[in-house]
Each structure stands twice: as C-alpha cells, then as structure tokens.
Amino acid sequence: MTGWSTGDIPDLDGRVAVVTGANGGLGYVIARELARKGATVVLACRSEERGSAAVRRLMGEVPAAAVEPARLDLGDLASVREFAYGLPYERVDLLVNNAGVMALPHGTTVDGFETQFGVNHLGHFALTGLLLPSLLAAPGARIVTVSSVLHALARVDPRDLNSVRRYGRWTAYARSKSANLLFTHELARRLAGREGASDVRAVAAHPGYAETGLHGAGPRAEGRRLAERLARLGSRVVAQSPEAGALPVLYAATAPGVPSDSFTGPSFAMWRGTPAPSWRASWTIDDAMGERLWAASERLTGVIYEALLP
Fold it and tell me: Which keywords does the record carry (predicted)?
C-alpha cells in the first residue's frame, strides 16, 4: 500500500457504483475519483438540490464523467426502498455506504429509531439488503462501509440499540460505528458461506481525522456556536483534507486483493497518511454478537437478506 494514491485506482469502465452521502466531503471525493476512472456513479443524497449541485460541480471537474443524482434519505426506510427499487441498473459493482451523522443531540428517524443508529447503521443495512441481488449479479462486487476509529469508544448494546435507557451523543455515535464494523463482519461471513457469492466482498474503511463536514454538525444543531467554531478550527488545523481522508475508502473499494472483512484506514496512528490495515476492537469480529445485531436489524427494518438464507 506504500504511496498508494488515486492514480493507482484501476480502470472502472463499465462498472456501476452507488455512493451514499456524495454531495460533499468524503462522499463527493469518492464519487469523483470513481467517475474519473470510468465508473458510472450514482450520487445518493438526502437533498435533491445538493445532489444536483454536486453533479454539476463534478461534471465541471471531470467533463466526461457518467454521473447522476438520486434522492436517498437513510433516516426514512420508505425512501431507502424507493431508491433501491428505482435504481435503473441490473447490477451494481460497488456500493459505498459512506453517509452518516455524528454526535447529534438526541433525535429519532422517520421510523422512530435513534438518529445515529438509524442513519449510520439501519439505513445502510436496509439499503445493502435491498441492493444485494444487484450486487450478486456483478462478479467481484464490493460493499464498502465507512466506519470510524471512534468505534472504540463503545460497543453495540443489544439490549438498548436505540439508546433509550441513557443517551450520550458520542456513545451513540461510537455504537453506530461499531455496528458498521459488526455488520461488515457478519455480511462477509454470510457471503463466504453462500455458494456463488464468495467473490463478493464486504469490507470497511475509515478516513482517520479528516474534514468531512460532520464535526460541527452536532454543536450547530444545538446552537452551541462556540463549540461549532472550535470544531471547525480543529478541522482546519489538525484534520487532513477530504481528498486524503477518502484514500482508505477508495483503496478498500478498488485495490486488487483487498480481503473480505478487512478494515482500512490511514497508516499513521490511524489518523492520517496512506491506506493501511487498521486496528479494530475485538467486539467488531464477534460472531455471536454479529448474529444478534443482524437479527435485530432485519426485525427493525423489515429487510430480509433472502439470497443469503441457508
């Protein structure tokens, strides 16, 4: 991986990619670089206006790009279904579960789930399940889920998935990011056990400390202006750019030989640098916990991964 850059992304001509949260930050960079290498990219965004603006911006940078916006609100399961059923492609070669929210005040999604768990995990769980037939139709397809090194702050609590007993914004965020890794682990395990699906890889990645636009969202939602300014200042001074933060995700999505259930992040202290294998907490590779989260996620979303049933 030494010195790996966007120049090392292989030719993606003929491939179809879906990137969630692609209107800005990491998602925009990921979508742009995939399109630059020839992929047809669907920018799945909650705001139609911001999605269309991102497409115009991207076309200005990569005039030959094959890109299109599509509305997707991960906090609304009806929107997830509408997006998946309306996708006009028989196969999807790459799904990048990138969109997310961070350290928000307590709230709930349209379906009543705690916002961070509902958007960061359940929305992507449902999306992946609904797109699974299209992914299985693409030889060598990859499902990349973006987690965070901050997953280490808290493990998934199966007795309180929606943080009803006690809510802490950072604990809830960490739980959702642990859920991302546990979902990747269980999905990889189930794909490996299904005949004909073993070449479809479920992997995870994280950007380290990168300017994603998320750090000030929580303080802004609560009107804490000083905290928002400090978060933005910290991002400008300490964080790496979205281009640098996107590299581990792009590596996980496109580099040859990336193993299923791997976790890729920046090489220097999991903070910044070129892509490298990243440390992950032991609870994110727990088979029993993976099965429990999977069962709960199917029950809560109503999305059953029928293609992976025994």
Answer: Oxidoreductase
d(CA 106, CA 218): 10
- Give the model confidence (pLDDT) of 102-123 as tens digits: 999 999 999 999 999 999 999 9
Token couple for 302: 């109503």
Alpha carbon 206 to its chain's center: 9
Give the amino acid at 18: V
CB 182, CB 293: distance < 8 Å: yes
Q: What is the pTM of this model?
A: 0.91
CA–CA dist 72, 19 (Å, integer): 10
- Collapsing DSSP to helix, strand or coil, 220 comes out as helix
The model's pLDDT over 79-102, given as tens digits with 9 standing for 90+, comes to 999 999 999 999 999 999 999 999
CA atoms within 13 A on the CB side of 300: 27
> Distance between CA 51 and CA 72 in Å, rounded?
10
Fold of 6-207+241-303: Rossmann fold (3.40.50)
> Which amino acid, 161?
L
Q: Could you give the residue numbers annotated as active site?
A: 173
What is the H or E stretch that residue 274 is in? strand 272-277
Residue 249 has which token pair? Answer: 């995700």
Instruction: Decide if 95 contacts 143 (C-beta within 8 A).
Output: yes
- Cross-strand pairs, 16: 40
The secondary structure of the chain in percent helix, strand, coil, rounded to multiples of 5, reads 45, 15, 40
